[in-house]
Amino acid sequence: FLRQILSSLVFFFLSLIESGFVQHATSHSEAVGIWQMIPGTAKNYGLKVNHYVDERRNWIKSTEAAVTYLKDLKNVFGSWYLAFAAYNAGEYRIVRSIMDGKTRDFWTLAEGNMLPVETLNYVPKFMAAMIIGKDPEKYGIKFAKEKEWGEFDVVEAPSGASLKDLARASGVSLTTIREWNPDILRDR
After folding, report:
1. What is the pLDDT, as a whole number, of residue 77?
2. Model's pTM, two decimal places?
3. Taken in order 98, 101, 105, 111, is the CA torsion positive or negative?
């Protein structure tokens, strides 16, 4: 499932809906990153969130966590519509709506005004993104050439190492190190 999402342009459009691709996007509910995860959910799905690191800003780690979370929500609710709704509004909000509405049908809950307005708009946007993401050219969407990152090495650095020192030792600019590591918050 993860490979299917990551290998398609669906990922592109889903990220667009969540954050507009802004890694540092923050919501009123403290959701952060391209997948707009709140701290508790992020931690539940293996992401570090503390004073120095916020892996919700890491494209790869946060995408893996978001896909796993969506898959779990689908398993809990038995419906992709309800899984998307729960991703947006929270699992407990959707459980309450199901109990109040006495149905597990998203569209019945929507028609009965049992869901937040934001969620009523979110689910169709999500569905549209998936449809467009499977065949963007059909909808007149063309992409600029991707940024060429070139080759790189993944290096483990000691905890607390200064990014400035790492840049000096590696010969890689501090700007590039910051750009490639948006989850590092304190230059350490």
Report:
1. 97
2. 0.79
3. negative
| Tokens (6 digits) for 10 | 């669906």
What per-residue confidence (pLDDT) applies to 125?
A: 83
Q: List the one residue out of 150, 157, 77 whose CA is nearest residue 115.
A: 77
Partnered with residue 53 across adjacent β-strands are 184
Residues of the chain with pLDDT under 50: 1-2, 5-9
Residues annotated as catalytic (active site), given as ranges? 18
Residue type, 155: V
The 8-class DSSP code of residue 51 comes to: S
pLDDT of residue 19: 54
**Cβ pair 8, 14 in contact under 8 A:** no
Opening angle at CA 105, ends 100 and 110, nearest 5: 70
Q: If we measure between CA atoms, which residue out of 56, 84, 55, 60 comes closest to residue 72?
A: 84
Percent of all residues in the chain with a pLDDT value above 70, rounded to a whole number:
81
CB-based contact 44:38 (threshold 8 Å):
no
CB 125 within 8 A of CB 155: no
Which residue matches tokens 């919700």? Answer: 56
The rounded distance, in Å, linking the Cα atoms of 161 and 154 is 15
